Amino acid sequence: MLKSINPNWNKSVISITILLSLVLSIFVLISPEYSSQILKNIYNYLSNMFEGFFMYGSFALLLFLLVLASSKFGSFKVKLSNKPSYSMFSWSSMLFAGGIGATLLYWSTVEWIEYYNILKNNSALSDKELMLYSRAYPLFHWGFSAWAIYCLPAVAFGIALTLKPDTNLTFSGILGAKNSFNRFILDILFIGAIICGAGVGLGLSFPLISSVISKIFVIERTVTLDIFTIIICAFIFGMSAYVGVQKGIRRLSNINVIMVIIFLLIILLLGPSKYILSNSADSFIFLLKEYIPMSVSTGTDISINWSVFYWAWWLALAPMIGTFIINVSNNKSLRQIIFGTIFIGSFGCIFSMMILSNLSISLFESGYINSPNIIENNLMSKEELVVKTISSLNYNYLLIAFSMILIIFLCTTYDSATYVLASASMKDSSMESSKSLRVLFAILLVVQPTLLMYLNGVDSFKWIMVIFSIPLLFIYLMLIYSILKNVYSIKIT
Question: CA 58 from chain center: how many Å?
Fold first, then answer.
């Protein structure tokens, strides 16, 4: 079928990607309950087997990158032909907007509840310790180690492209795979990882946008509304991919970062300001104090069910984010790229987590919204709880602003994803990808999360992510080797 299509397409990689998507789709549609149980069983087995690799590996990676940035090799500048240089603000904005989507605002509001319920039922912590851990774990999962995972491919890609400008921005290109079979497998993993990782974000964002629309227009959230939301988002992504809105990512990113900051500051001012600031300071200090124990903690419900999921998610997204970061990092040193990615990204996420989490917790402690009970007994969906939390401030314009931020986040993140996927599916990734190929991946990015939503919500995403990320653990070890091999060939004066 693909024989008569663009000769520059990597048809074998594209065909296998489509085939795997179809197989998964048919598997889900024929027997949702059976497929859900199978995925769950595989997840439980693999998360227990590889928990140590995820936990110790992510912390070791953070240390490795910080040491590299602090060494003499940190001054090495990434030079990319035909790529513009950006101001620090634009670069920081694109880095953050490209790396984090609408899911940040989702989890900022409700993630603490998961840890509160787990620790409340399975630990002997005092009420104060219980709340400190509940506040700190979201900061941990969206903080330094997470962004270190994003940063690794960016560093590997940046060094390789500077030393050899014709290197393809794929796993096979960076690792210099010679054998055609090895190249094929690595390219499939590269593309599959991005589709899985981006699918998680889309799958969580669709219902959230639908819930916001339901609240703004005072209509019931139904399956019809969810489908309508998905169709609208799919249309936006498809048009964006076809027209080439990538050129406007810088402007959209700048606008969105400013909107997010203003949105969060308004919530801080209108909400329980003193409470938010006081508890934010306490939780951040607690995070720094407990960072190493949290990083190496294994065998707990939180580490197996949540930390492993998050590290797997970041691993899957890292090829896309790493590619995007390095494409906007021309003339940046490795030190700037590493410190910028890890700290700008982390503090942006932590800022959001602190404000929205503490707003939600204040509503719980005041007795206004018993969030832990709502989630524990399935009295309301998490998306509806997010909307209810923001609506508690009784300003409709906040919900309107919230919906705009969500949509722009989706546009910037997934426009980047379609471009990276399309470029990786060309025989030569330096070639401009065709519009039809970008639209193809825009469709695939929508179809898979829609089916996983149908399967079993968030849990399904967790299961898929961990299963797919296992091979990535070994690929990332090879990326580290690639970095070490290349930096020792660099002459630093």
Answer: 15
